[in-house]
Design goal:
113 residues, alpha+beta, tt1808, chain A, 4-stranded mixed beta sheet
């Protein structure tokens, strides 16, 4: 997710087809094993590597959603990762400062088959 003022534009002022910068907020979801059997099983370390790469290259916030235990690992620059569960309030970008949601809110919007 990009903050509006950071969305890359092409020479015509339209949104670029290719973004070569890290997003402001990266959200990744680990699928449950039963949902990913038809596809290659996700490597948690590969997903974490992607999030930390983005944080090291300008992202302000990263969420790693683990559908197996309905928790969210939070990644922020210069901080250790932090695990959030159930009714914990999640950090959001400063442009969304009035938006409060919990881990339970996020997982109530998602349906994993």
């Amino acid at each position: 997710m990009f903050e509006w003022q950071r969305i890359p534009l092409d020479a015509k002022g339209s949104i670029a087809n290719k973004f070569e910068i890290s997003p402001d907020w990266i959200i990744e979801i680990l699928l449950p094993v039963r949902a990913s059997r038809s596809r290659r099983v996700q490597s948690p370390n590969r997903v974490i590597r992607k999030i930390t790469f983005s944080i090291q290259n300008g992202a302000k916030l990263g969420w790693l959603l683990d559908s197996a235990d309905e928790s969210i690992m939070i990644f922020e620059p210069n901080k250790l990762p932090e695990l959030k569960e159930q009714q914990d309030i999640l950090p959001v970008l400063s442009v969304l400062k009035n938006w409060q949601l919990t881990v339970a809110d996020v997982f109530s919007w998602l349906s994993f088959i």
